[in-house]
Amino acid sequence: MSNEYRLVDETPRYGSRSEAYAPDPATPAVVRVEEAAEGAAMLDLDEMAAAIDRRLTSSWADKDTHLVTTMRAAHPEELSAARALVKLHLGSQRQWRLKAEVVRNNRLAATMRRRRSSGSAREVFILRAILMAGLIALPSYIVVTDREDVLKLVLVGIACIAVAMTGGHYITIHARVPVMPNIRGAWLAEIRDDIIDATLVAILQNNGTALDARTVTAGRRGWVSIQTAAQAMDALHR
Fold first, then answer.
1. Closest to 211 measured CA to CA, from 7, 63, 70
2. CA-CA-CA-CA torsion sign (9, 14, 18, 24)
3. Whole-angstrom distance, CA of residue 2 vs CA of residue 220
4. In sequence order, what are the beta bridge partners of 12?
5. Among positive and negative, which fits the CA dihedral 236, 41, 35, 56?
6. Which of 35, 125, 138, 227, CA to CA, is 20 to 30 A from 207?
7. How far apart are CA 229 and CA 39, in angstroms?
8. pLDDT surpassing 90 at residue 213
9. In the Cβ-directed half-sphere of 14, how many Cα atoms lie within 13 Å?
């Protein structure tokens, strides 16, 4: 039932209701408590970026859900256990990102082998070497021949930055390798919290704690969104 048909205390907005109303408990589900954490550890950077994008465009993620915040507050010990379990599988934010980069590199290994066999990887290496040599040689020449002319050094530095950006952009296009996604730490923390919430739900269900169906859905919604984004990216890569 949509939130617009419920009051803050989760009672029906319309129809008869009583003070003794309680949400129907969810049907216990057999869910491994490690499911979300293990699945998140297998994400690559592209899937991670897609999960972040999907969360940013989802209305349910605009603010914390009351059901989820209430569940967290009511079970502090289980929440600490969920956080510890997620940290065990993912490590810190930086470690999780590095794991995702390794998964991405493994996925792109076949592409890189194809580039090497076609000779394009050698061309890209030569282009990079030429660019680096030019960026080093010109400033070095100015420093050796006219060190006192500070203005010339500044202008050469600006020119080198422009050349590096332009040349790097051209080489990236020529390499035809998917660009590394930019993962922002604050947004990565949000999907990590979604994984913690799903783990918390699994812990509570496995402990026999009564949870109503709407709380279970809200607690797992972020992890389901991550899975949907990962599946879509996997379909694109096939």
1. 70
2. negative
3. 17
4. 6
5. negative
6. 227
7. 13
8. yes
9. 5
Counted residue by residue, the chain has a size of 238
pLDDT tens digits, residue range 70-126?
Answer: 999 999 999 999 999 999 999 999 999 999 999 998 888 887 777 667 666 677 777
CA separation for the pair 176, 181 (Å, rounded): 15
216 CB-side CA count, 13 A: 19
Query: What is d(CA 151, CA 161) in angstroms, rounded to the nearest whole number?
Result: 16
Neighbours of 47 (CB within 10 A): 25
Amino acid 147: pLDDT: 66
How distant, in Å, are the alpha carbons of 86, 132, 141, 174 from that of 163? 44, 10, 17, 16
CA nearest neighbour of 115 among 123, 107, 104: 123
Backbone φ and ψ for 30, nearest 5 degrees, come out as: -85, 100
Two structure tokens written together for 7: 């009051």
Tokens of 44: 């690559």
Please report the pLDDT score of residue 120 as a whole number.
Answer: 66
- At residue 25, the 3 state secondary structure works out as strand
